[in-house]
Hints:
The chain has a five-stranded antiparallel β-sheet with strand order 4-3-2-1-5. A four-stranded antiparallel β-sheet has the order 6-7-8-9, with helices on one face. The radius of gyration is 26 Å and the shape is elongated. Strand 8 and strand 9 (144-146) form a beta hairpin. The chain has four helices and nine strands; from the N terminus they run H-H-E-E-E-E-E-H-E-E-E-E-H. It has two domains: 5-77, SH3 type barrels, CATH 2.30.30; 101-160. With 165 residues, the protein is α+β, with helices and mostly antiparallel strands.
Amino acid sequence: MIPSGKDINRCLNIDIVELRDYVDKYVRVSIKGGKTFEGVLYTVDPVSGCAVLFNKVQNSFEFVFGHAVDKIDVLSQTEEKLSLFEPSPYSQSIQSSHDNQQTNSLSKLKSWLLRNRIPVEQVGNELKLGDVLTIIPPYNSNCCLSTNEIVLANVQRLIKSMPSD
């Protein structure tokens, strides 16, 4: 007989669904043998029950395996989600530059297709040729989506022949 999900979780001595409620909270995890770990619960592996704790004081991660967990206590609520990577001060300007480049590529490709008498319309950030073909960012020949191989090949060839200036 194959054990159900509840039986497997009882073997690990913890309820995986309950652990999900502890994510992003400051917790104390007691394991068998009396040792304890404290930190913000970053994530839980649903298969093994392994809990990943982030300790801000030591700036480190600790992995507590599900089979060893005896008890979990929430010490305090955290107001913010744990972010491993601090945003770069340059990320806003890089994103803005990328958006401008993408907009330029979109308008350039759209005008090229219209100049070659291909009926194209812009829907959001995609270019659509009827219901036959869609071109997604970054708007090069590899970004064409279609189930019609003949149309796909012809549009890709046209995009490849587009002047680079």
